[in-house]
Amino acid sequence: MMEHLFFFFSLSFIYCTFSKLSSFTLMFIHKAKPSFIYILPIVFIFFFLFGCNRKQTIHQTDLDNLYAYKRTQIQKDSIANKYSKAGYEILQSDQSKKKNKQIDSLISKLRWSSNTELFFKLVKTAEQQAKEQYDISRLAHLYENMAVYYHDEQQLDSVYTYYLKAEHLYKESKDSIALAENIYYQARLLYEVDLYQESESKLDFALNILKKDPKNPINIEANQLKTFYKKETDKDIIQGLIVLEQIYYQLKKDKGIYTILPKEKFNLAFANLCLNIALNYIDLGQLSKAKDFCLEGLDNAKNIKANQIQAHLNWSYHKILYQQGLQKNIVNDLIDSYNTYIELNHPFYAISLSTYIAELYREQNQTYQSLNWLLKAYELADKNKFYKQKKEVIQQLLEAHPTYETQELIAELVNTSYFMEEQQNKIVKSFTKIEFDTFILEQENSILKQRVILLYFIITSVIISFIFIFIVVRLRIKNRELIYANDKQQKNEQILNLILEKENIENQTILKERNRIARDLHDGVVNSIFTLRFNTQLLQIPNEELKNSLIKELIHLEHVIRNISHSFAYHDVLQNKSFEKLLNELVNKQNNENKTDYSFECNINLEYLTNHQKINIYLIIQECFQNVNKHANASKCKLHVAFENNYIIFSIKDNGLGMKYNSNHGIGLKNIKERADNISAKLKIESESNKGTTLLLSILAESI
């Protein structure tokens, strides 16, 4: 899967390079340092190595497997009835691929059930999903579920095979806790088939990993199993008891809190621990302590669904009472445990208990009962092919009942010894072969993986090289295009500079000509009209009305020409000063007999106005100020400039006498309106007698 992602990422990168690499991106690369081109492949490899993460299901300790017990057929059927409907519904659903957790949960339940058909169908579905998603943690847990199923069926070679498969995957996923749990299950299995040395080796490996997690339930059970290996001397037993009692006090502190184990599993684990401690004290002959731990174990086991632990504790407790001489007839109490073993299909423990009861009857000289229980043990061992126990039962029969079919028993003993040895050799060979095959498979997978990685590395190197060459070629082409564009831009700039220089010369010439015309108009024409008007006033003619009319026309003509002269002249003024500063100077120059207080307020930038607009606005304001000086008799006058509703508004407000519409004032107002029309401005005048006048000049910002 990692290799597939690698290949997919490479193809995606090529596609993006060809189809999505815009000119902007190339310009960015071009402007960047040259080393960027060499860094690009390294960045790509970095994203590949750290970006292609496998999906990994979070591991949780399999407490049901850790504290597994034999189910009766009734219990298996009950589990099947409870979960089968949900299992079939998921298999028939189109959304089964989205129900990983539900499928895994059902598998963990149905592995103990009688519906093996549904179990294997769900396993097949989950295995396919895990492989497609490359979820190796889920696949490993799935193999462990298979191992649990085969363990319940006593197909031990299959159990070992699936545990080894899971181990390989946990190593690959680097999940150390899950690996330790898996190794513990292997050690438990090897102990079960009497491969003690191999079991202890694996257990030590698991415990070494679990040192960093002392409260892990696996650690608790693994340390208990560790005490089973060496019981040759009292010293070995005492050392084992030290470990067991440390676990005992650790669990004792957790009782009622249940941080290590949930309540149901806690009671099972604690009862089992008390049993193991009691058995060690029995071996040491400290029966009082053994009895106390048995009673504590029975107290914790009374509400447990599985009666196996209770049967063990019951057996040990009555054995202690018998050895203490407190109870002579314990067979009836032991039969309860025997019946539990038979009901739970635990022939191993049933055989051991049968031989113990037979020994009790033998001590009491009840030969018939002793023989009867030994024969029960023999039948169970023979039926279930427990050759080791069968051999022990035959030896006990020969020793305790030498007259009972001696020749046949001797022959059976020989055959059993042979079968036992053959079975042990078969188990060793089978487990060894499984381990060897798994090792070879791992080696082959490792070599294949290395080859695939090498192949994809070569492919990726070629792809990166091709991308590198492509980028370099594109950059060179782009570089030529940029050089050509720069040359063209420089030439365009030269042409533009020439045009601007020409326009500047033209503007200077026009400006000089304007100033000359303005001077000529002001110094020549205006003065001539003034002289003509003055002389006309001195004329003595009978028609005074005509005389006054001519004088008014001359005054109007003088005013118009003066404004034209000023218009030409203001072009020069506007070139050197900001419009706001010009308005401020105009306000400061105002003076009249009424000593009107002029003020100016402006909060916007007026330089966006055109010169044409500035000149007309200036002259309008100037005309307004002249009217205030001549007619308003105002104490205050304010020029305010603001921006409202997309309009620049010039407001001239005084607190004078208000507007009186005489002929002179009418000419000034007409000039103001004409100038407002020239710049497409809105003009509004508000005036009220003895309350002053307000003139509003509004220019649409979009017209600037």
Structural write-up:
Its EC number is 2.7.13.3. InterPro entries: HATPase_C_sf (IPR036890), HATPase_dom (IPR003594), Sensor_HK_TwoCompSys (IPR050482), Sig_transdc_His_kin_sub3_dim/P (IPR011712), TPR-like_helical_dom_sf (IPR011990), TPR_rpt (IPR019734). The chain is 75% helix and 6% strand. It has helices spanning 2-20, 23-31, 35-51, 63-66, 73-92, 100-110, 116-133, 136-152, 156-173, 176-192, 196-210, 217-226, 234-254, 263-284, 287-301, 308-323, 331-343, 347-363, 367-383, 387-400, 406-538, 544-576, 579-589, 611-632, 663-678, and strands at residues 597-602, 636-644, 647-654, 682-688, 692-700. Strands 1-2-3-5-4 form a five-stranded mixed β-sheet, covered by helices on one side. Strand 1 (597-602), helix 24 and strand 2 form a beta-alpha-beta unit. The longest helix is centred in the C-terminal third of the chain and has 133 residues, at 406-538. It is rod-shaped and about 185 Å long. The two termini are 66 Å apart. Mean pLDDT is 82; it is low at 1-38 and 46-52.
